[in-house]
Design a protein that fits this description.
OB fold (Dihydrolipoamide Acetyltransferase, E2P), two-stranded antiparallel sheet, alpha+beta
Length: about 160
């Protein structure tokens, strides 16, 4: 699933960048034609070549936003699990990405432990088809359940999927 998601994100980014370059070159061509009307064809060709080179160079640094080789992140809004703290507002909505390590059935829901190499967090969701070791991206509200026991706080932060 993670590989397919990366391929889809890369394909969409390439398609979008190509469409932007083509649109930019068409606008530049139309502008060049209207400005160079009555001028020599050499000036037109130089202008067109300039815009073509600029358009192609803009594709040179094409990488989908947020994708990186070994530390995979699909988007810039993915929150590392280590940054999700009990003090956080219980209404905060975050995106996490990681691997499903454990699962536990609840009455009408499922709980999955997600690991993103910075930490682990449990996610409560209605999804029941997340297999262990599968890569997931989940949007959820930060929740904290206080469990005072023998004078100690044993509460835990978890996400409730949106």
């Amino acid at each position: 699933m993670g590989t397919d998601l990366i391929k889809l994100a890369t394909k969409q980014a390439v398609t979008q960048k190509f469409a932007q370059s083509v649109a930019f070159m068409q606008q530049a061509r139309n502008l060049s034609l209207s400005l160079l009307y009555g001028h020599s064809i050499v000036s037109y060709r130089l202008g067109f070549t300039f815009f073509l080179v600029v358009g192609l160079c803009s594709c040179g640094s094409l990488t989908p936003s947020g994708l990186s080789g070994s530390n995979l992140k699909i988007g810039t809004n993915v929150t590392p699990i280590r940054e999700i703290k009990p003090e956080q507002d219980n209404q905060a909505i975050v995106y996490i990405q990681g691997k499903v390590e454990k699962q536990a059935p609840l009455i009408k829901q499922w709980a999955y432990e997600i690991n993103d190499s910075t930490g682990k967090i449990w996610v409560v969701t209605n999804q029941k088809d997340l297999g262990e070791r599968s890569q997931v991206v989940i949007k959820g509200k930060v929740r904290y359940r206080s469990i005072p026991l023998a004078g100690k706080e044993l509460g835990e932060v978890y996400l409730e999927e949106e």
